[in-house]
Structure formats: C-alpha cells, structure tokens
TrEMBL record:
Its cofactor is Mg(2+); Mn(2+). Residues 32-52 are annotated as: Disordered. Belongs to the CRISPR-associated endonuclease Cas1 family. The keyword Cytoplasm does not apply. The keyword Manganese applies. Pfam families: Cas_Cas1, Cas_Cas4. This is CRISPR-associated endonuclease Cas1. Mn(2+) binds at E391, H470, E485. PANTHER family: CRISPR-ASSOCIATED ENDONUCLEASE CAS1 1. InterPro entries: Cas1 (IPR050646), CRISPR-assoc_Cas1 (IPR002729), CRISPR-assoc_Cas1_C (IPR042206), CRISPR-assoc_Cas1_N (IPR042211), CRISPR-assoc_prot_Cas4 (IPR013343), Dna2/Cas4_DUF83 (IPR022765), PDDEXK-like_dom_sf (IPR011604). CRISPR (clustered regularly interspaced short palindromic repeat), is an adaptive immune system that provides protection against mobile genetic elements (viruses, transposable elements and conjugative plasmids). CRISPR clusters contain spacers, sequences complementary to antecedent mobile elements, and target invading nucleic acids. CRISPR clusters are transcribed and processed into CRISPR RNA (crRNA). Acts as a dsDNA endonuclease. Involved in the integration of spacer DNA into the CRISPR cassette. GO terms for biological process: defense response to virus; maintenance of CRISPR repeat elements.
Length: 578
C-alpha cells in the first residue's frame, strides 16, 4: 500500500482503511502481466544458505514481513546470486524518462525499497532492487541507499498515522493521475472538490476565461473554476437481468448463467455482463448460482408476482463501517435530518414541476407557480412534520394534473376497444392496493426504483434502513426512500408516461383481482423495458455539467450524500433536472 500512498493518499485510504477495490483496464492488464509470477510461491533459500548458493536462483511470489518496521510484502521475484538477494517487481507500464536513461517512478522506488528493508530484516544481504517494465521490456535498477530507506520508513509512518486518524484526505485537484485510477468512480475527485468550494443552492457568478484574458488584473480568488471532468463512464456496460417468466430455473457453468424454462430451452448470459439479478415470483436459482453471484458482488433482488420488492441477497463486499457509524450518528441528530430532508423534498417538488412543464398538454400556470412556491417553502421548513405537509400539498397538486401528461386521445374508442374492462384515465393517486392501471404502474415503478436505490446505497456503504426524512420503521428501507424522492417524477413517473404514451402497454394488459389491479405477467416485460430505457437515458448534471445515465446519477448522488455525512462537503444538494 506504500505505492498507493505515494501515488495518492486518498487512494491509500480507500484501499487500506475502507478496503475498497475496483478494476479497470489497467488493473486487469496488470494482473495478466503478473500471471507467471503469481502462479504460486517457490522456495527462497534461508539467509545462510543464500551465501552458499553456487548458481543463480529465482524464487517467485515470496511473502515476507518485518515485525520491526511493521511491513509485509509479496515480492514478485527474488533473484539470489553470489550470496546477495535482489527483489524484482513487475510493472505493466513504462519507466520515467530521465536525463538520457530510464528512471523509476517515485511509487516504484518506495515499493522496491520497502521490499529491500523486509529482506534485510530477515537476514538477507540486499544492495539493489529491479523493476521490470512489461510494456518496454526494460529492467531498471535501484541502489538501496540509507537515504532511500529513511524516506521509505518515514512514508510508512505517515501512512499508518493517516489510517489511524480515520479522516479521509481531500482529493487531488485537477490531477492527471485521476483518469487512470481504478477508484475514480468511487473517489469522484473533481465532483468532491467543486462541491466543497461552491454554494450549491446559489452558485456564485464567476468570470469566464475570455473575460479574464481581457482583464488580467482580476484577483486570484475570481479565477474561473476549472470544468469538472467526466472521469466515469456515462453508462455501465453491465445490465440488469430480469427473470419474469414463472417456472424458470437458473444455474451456472463456467461463469455463465444458464436459464432454463419449463420446456428445457436454455438461454445463456455471462456473469460479466450482469450488474444485478431481479427475480419475480416463482423462479429458482441454484445454490451454485447464488454463491457465484455473491462472490462477484452481484445483488439478487426478490419481488412478488405482483411486483412488491421484499428482499436482497448480496455478498460480503462491504467491509468499511465508518460511513455507517457516521450515518447512525447523524440520523439521531434532528437538525441534520431536517437539513437533508429539506434538500430532498425541495428537489422532488422541483422535478414534479419540471415534468408537468415538459409533458402536460397545457400546464396550468397557477399550478406551476404553486409548486415553485412550495419548493421554496420546503427549503426553509422548521420541522419534518411541516415538511411532510408541504410534500403532501405538492403531491396533491401534481397528481391532480397528472392525467394531462397522458396522451391517450380516445385511442381505444377509435379502434373499437371501448369495451375493455380498464381505461388509462387517471384521477388521483391510490395504493395498497392500486385500483386502476395507472396507479398499478406507478406502484411497480416505485418498487423498481426503491430496489435500485437500495442496491446503490449498499454499494456505497450505507445502511439503507436508516433514513433521515423517512424515519426508521421495521422492514422499511428508509434511506432508499429518502434518496429516491427527487427521482420519483423524473424516473418512475416518466417511465409510466413512456409506456403509456408510446403505446407499449394497452388497457388489455391489466387484470383485476379483488379490489387490486395488476399488470399481466407477459406485459410486465414491456414496462420493464420502458423503465430500463429511462434509467439508461443520459441527463446533464446541474452542478457538474456533464451527461451521464440516470443509473449513474443515482450512484453519484448517493456518494455525494456519503461525502456530506463524512464531513467532506458542507452541504448536500438533490439532483434537479433542467
């Protein structure tokens, strides 16, 4: 971990203290380059035997430790010759070009020096080390000097002190190191940096680069904020897997999920292409499949046949508890709960207003004005009870005009289907159970969104059952319900509008059981497609000004809340679409 500490103290903290890891192309390629030395350990002669070795010996994957200095290392290769040992470290990249000769990077120097210190503390004679750069096939030697040893031990002491403080270092500022870092999607360096320095609710007016070129005497504090780099992919390569057909059986073979139906027809999907598995109703997964999914940290979400989200299975990938400790502490602080809840409810009302503006046939000006006023009231509410009242008023206004966003236009009467048992006319929100097709779709959409936010909260490190606006209740993922509030209109409600207005569903796709109306099993596939289409839509983040999918925005917003709870940023802002 000294390599990571020298490269970026924040990276060291994530990997060592919080035990986080993520692969990228560089780490995968590096593991491939190490495949030979990682095959298995080979014996290293004892210090006394090394002095008597008549010919060169190569020991691979050697693990040694130094109790004196508190260091441990797995050395890729140890060359033993003429009584001396030389650690050889394999690196996938290329050396730094010095004055006429290749040089080691600072990270590689310190890592190699630590290996030499460990070898010396175990009684070996070690005068130099070597780094082999696979890209250029060069061996670069490093003499082990006393100055280098002192520097390495000093850095090791600093790394231990940082870990003991339990306070994550700030991100690097506009650093060229960040784009190649495998944890950049977790770290969010530019996003965290700008959030710590800007008033999110009222961004300050700053001069542009062109203005500064015209007026170079501008004070330094008025220098323009550098643009936020989009260092994370706009969309994930992996996709959710929905198992909706009753009677499916899912097994696994060689990293491939094998899905069999009642007729024993098989469909195969690679694990590497899946980021979550969603099970509806009577679908069976083998123990081997569940174990493989847990090992790859792919969550399994369970739904009833009607779409009620009631559980998750996931592996033990979450090892850091410090965020959850801070979450519990803040959840017991009334003013902190109110501050977070204000932002979430105000964001939800703003997004409801935006959806009406975009999709209503003739958006009523008085309703838009009222929603704008309620959003302003939400930002200054003096209690959670007051905030719930404001949210309720906004919901009544919003759903009273929801029907104006449905483009049905008497379609079914014109096509001779006027005798269908249901219509897509909507008057008000009802649930538990939903009593008309639109409310059935809204309930299913909210259930899917709650599932996705719960999975994201787990992945970031939260306990999804401890919320700030929704107070804890047995069996309720309160934090997930908190985080999904601003996204209800722009993801869930929008998915319902997509499915209806694009004729992906018809009134004939619904069935009534007692007072409850539900979507038929086969028709659910069409709505799942509409929901995933919305989740995959690119949107511009209002603060960072780059375009990413809504699924990615869910993760970004959840990580920003974690930054606020850990004290890295001064406030949390809900996502508000333009």
């Amino acid at each position: 971990m000294l390599n990571e500490f020298v490269y970026c103290p924040r990276l060291f903290y994530y990997e060592w203290v919080e035990a986080l890891w993520a692969d990228n192309a560089d780490t995968v390629h590096g593991a491939h380059q190490h495949r030979r030395v990682d095959k298995g350990p080979t014996a290293l002669p004892s210090p006394t035997s090394a002095e008597e070795v008549p010919e060169a010996i190569h020991a691979r994957s050697v693990t040694l430790s130094s109790e004196k200095h508190g260091l441990i290392a797995r050395i890729d290769l140890v060359e033993v010759e003429n009584g001396a040992v030389c650690p050889v470290d394999y690196k996938r990249g290329a050396p730094r070009q010095g004055d006429g000769a290749p040089e080691l990077w600072d990270t590689d120097r310190v890592q190699l020096a630590a290996q030499a210190i460990i070898l010396r503390d175990n009684g070996y004679r070690c005068e130099e080390g070597i780094v082999y750069y696979c890209s250029t096939r060069q061996r670069v030697r490093l003499p082990i000097t006393e100055e280098l040893i002192e520097e390495t031990l000093r850095l090791a002491h600093q790394a231990r002190a940082l870990a003991a403080r339990r306070q994550i270092p700030p991100p690097l500022f506009n650093s060229p190191k960040c784009p190649r870092c495998s944890l950049v999607g977790i770290c969010l360096p530019d996003e965290t940096w700008i959030t710590t320095r800007l008033d999110i609710t009222e961004p300050p007016s700053r001069p542009t680069a062109i203005q500064l070129s015209l007026f170079p005497e501008c004070p330094s504090e008025q220098q323009p904020v550098p643009p936020v780099r989009r260092l994370v992919p706009a969309r994930d390569d992996e996709k959710p897997l929905y198992l909706n057909t009753q009677g499916l059986k899912i097994g696994i073979s060689g990293g491939v999920l094998q899905i069999r139906d009642k007729e024993d027809h098989t469909q195969e999907i690679r694990l590497m292409d899946v980021n979550q598995v969603n099970v509806f109703g009577n679908v069976q997964l083998t123990t081997q499949a569940i174990q493989a999914l847990c090992q790859e940290d792919i969550p399994i979400a369970y739904f009833s046949m009607g779409g009620w989200f009631y559980g998750l299975t996931r592996g033990h990938s979450l090892k850091n508890v410090f965020l959850r400790r801070n979450q519990f502490r803040l959840a017991d602080t009334p003013w902190a709960c109110l501050k977070i809840a204000r932002a979430l409810v105000a964001g939800k009302i703003q997004n409801q207003r935006t959806l009406l503006q975009r999709n209503h046939i003739e958006p009523p000006a008085e309703v838009l004005a009222a929603l704008k006023h309620l959003a302003q009231q939400a930002r200054t509410a003096d209690s959670l009870e007051t905030l719930r009242g404001i949210e309720g008023q906004a919901a009544n206004l919003y759903f009273a005009h929801f029907a104006g966003m449905l483009k049905i236009d008497d379609l079914w009467e014109a096509t001779g289907k006027s005798r269908l048992p249901f219509t897509f006319h909507f008057t008000h929100r009802n649930r538990r159970p939903p009593r008309d097709p639109i409310n059935a779709l809204l309930s299913l959409a909210y259930s899917l969104l709650a599932k996705d936010v719960t999975i994201t909260a787990w992945a970031v490190g939260f306990d999804p059952y401890v919320g700030f606006y929704h107070q804890p209740r047995f069996g309720r993922p309160a934090l997930a319900l908190d985080l999904m509030e601003p996204f209800r209109p722009i993801i869930a409600d929008s998915a319902v509008l997509i499915a209806i207005n694009n004729r992906m569903l018809t009134p004939d796709d619904f069935v009534q059981v007692g007072p409850s109306v539900a979507l038929k099993n086969d028709a659910r596939k069409h709505f799942l497609r509409a929901y995933e289409q919305r989740m995959d839509t690119l949107a511009t983040h209002p603060l960072f000004d780059y375009r990413v999918s809504y699924r990615r925005i869910l993760e970004i917003q959840t990580r920003l809340l974690a930054r606020y709870i850990n004290g890295e940023v001064p406030q949390y802002s809900a996502f508000v679409t333009r």
